[in-house]
Q: What sequence folds into this?
């Protein structure tokens, strides 16, 4: 039986259409010059749609047109002082130049991601949980502040690079949905940086960092984990972490309508209300959103009604599971279930913001053949070299043997774990790459594992002493390739290992990618 729409329903539909059109018009006009702040940003759009933001996090830009407060805080290793990073003007992109100046010659970590709503739902270092943290129950790691350089509207900014073991959390929030209350959330991720670990999440979680049972979470998940649920293809997928399950739809295991999706900048959306939820997503650089699921709560006991607790997590699971990888740029949580029209307008704003990679620090070109020369004054004739599996620095010159020249020559490949980074394949040992193991570099054959890919991926940055490049480990982004006593390690600027010594650190982690000797 078809129910005839009432006059009230028709009027509501007409108003919703007019509202969506007005929002889209305002967003497109504001976004015409992507180097300027939009007059209406995502949280303004959500408020206009009747579902205001109750948490708003970003290290790249303001999420309100009038917001001029701090976006995030960094702490530098040299003296443990901190600095807040704000937009260059109200409603605009982050002032990365202030971070670069503050962190020059040392390394920095992101210590706080501020909440732009005024509710103080900021994200800080995640505490121990039911699943022990990296240090046997210790606090999670903090993200390297320079590991994810991108651009917004052509201006350099930084994202939050989450290596396994990194996590942020707030267990004492204000205004986040609890129980079966409706909410929505979106996040912008790097769709090429992910793994199958549990769990790269952003959203609503338990307030005690424990697994409190089915339905006690509602968070966006992104990755290729197939232990619980999955979508079409081999992943990665946008799914919902609802605790004790990653769900792609109503079924516990599989939803053919949830596609593998890996845009360089990815818009991911999860929203829920009583007995109803949805997954949406799209390319954050162009186009519209797709709806990958829209229907009833999962057909498994414990998820209807929901029992959400209202904590906020980033990069980890509800019980502090810390095995996942990903990169976060911005995200919000709302009070109430946003309409598709509101989310479509937010997507138009995101596209108009102009996320890009052109401002990222350039490293050696993929496909080029290089030799990596040290820049420390003692060692400017030394290059990274291998002898079998052993990696060290060796003096190489025009008069060196053909074997020595060949051992110091590498082909630059797209990063095995992150295509925005690089991997170094030996010129004379096809299929073998520089990789770290127990913090020391070796040359090993690629075994095809996710661990090897991460260990063999390094992200180029401007050389810490101003020369060439420094190469951050993809899975330990506060550690950089360093020579120490002629051996080669991944080293932090200060730490418990001898090769973490602060003396000459900036010089020792800076390398000039010279033309290959062979």
A:
């Amino acid at each position: 039986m078809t129910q005839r729409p009432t006059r009230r329903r028709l009027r509501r539909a007409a108003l919703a259409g007019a509202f969506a059109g007005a929002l889209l018009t305002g967003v497109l006009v504001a976004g015409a010059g992507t180097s300027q702040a939009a007059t209406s940003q995502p949280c303004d759009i959500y408020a206009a749609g009747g579902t205001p933001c109750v948490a708003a996090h970003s290290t790249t830009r303001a999420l309100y047109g009038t917001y001029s407060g701090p976006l995030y805080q960094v702490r530098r290793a040299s003296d443990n002082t901190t600095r807040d990073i704000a937009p260059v003007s109200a409603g605009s992109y982050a002032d990365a130049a202030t971070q670069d100046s503050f962190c020059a010659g040392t390394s920095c970590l992101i210590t706080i991601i501020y909440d732009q709503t005024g509710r103080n739902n900021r994200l800080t270092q995640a505490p121990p949980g039911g699943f022990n943290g990296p240090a046997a129950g210790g606090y999670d790691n903090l993200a390297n502040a320079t590991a994810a350089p991108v651009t917004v509207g052509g201006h350099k900014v930084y994202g939050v690079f989450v290596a396994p073991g990194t996590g942020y959390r707030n267990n004492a929030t204000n205004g986040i949905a609890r129980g079966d209350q409706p909410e929505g959330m979106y996040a912008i991720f790097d769709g090429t940086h992910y793994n199958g670990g549990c769990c790269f999440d952003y959203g609503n979680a338990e307030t005690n960092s424990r697994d409190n049972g089915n339905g006690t979470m509602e968070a966006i998940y992104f990755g290729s984990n197939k232990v619980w649920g999955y979508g079409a293809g081999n992943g990665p997928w946008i799914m919902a972490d609802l605790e004790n399950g990653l769900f792609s739809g109503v079924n516990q295991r599989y939803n053919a309508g949830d596609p593998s999706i890996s845009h360089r900048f990815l818009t991911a959306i999860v929203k829920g209300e009583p007995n109803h939820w949805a997954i949406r997503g799209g390319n954050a650089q162009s186009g519209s959103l797709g709806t990958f699921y829209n229907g009833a709560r999962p057909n498994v006991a414990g998820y209807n009604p929901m029992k959400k607790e209202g904590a906020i997590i980033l990069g980890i699971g509800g019980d502090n599971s810390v095995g996942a990888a990903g990169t976060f740029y911005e995200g919000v949580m709302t009070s109430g279930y946003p309409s598709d029209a509101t989310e479509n307008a937010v997507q138009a704003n995101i596209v108009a913001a102009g996320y890009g990679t052109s401002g990222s620090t350039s490293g050696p070109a993929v496909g080029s053949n290089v030799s990596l020369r040290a820049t420390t004054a003692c060692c400017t004739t030394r290059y990274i070299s291998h002898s079998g599996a052993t990696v060290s620095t060796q003096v190489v010159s025009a008069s060196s043997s053909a074997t020595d020249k060949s051992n110091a020559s590498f082909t630059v490949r797209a990063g095995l774990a992150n295509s925005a980074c690089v991997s170094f394949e030996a010129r004379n040992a096809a299929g073998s790459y520089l990789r770290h193991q127990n913090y020391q570099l070796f040359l090993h054959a690629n075994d095809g594992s996710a661990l090897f890919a991460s260990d063999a991926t390094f992200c180029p940055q401007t050389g810490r002493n101003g020369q060439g490049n420094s190469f951050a480990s993809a899975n330990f982004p506060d550690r950089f390739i360093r020579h120490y006593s002629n051996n080669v390690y991944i080293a932090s600027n200060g730490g418990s290992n001898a090769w973490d010594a602060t003396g000459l650190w900036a010089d020792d982690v800076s390398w000039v990618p010279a033309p290959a000797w062979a």
About this structure: Residues 1-38 have pLDDT under 50 and may be disordered. DSSP finds seven helices and 33 strands in the chain.
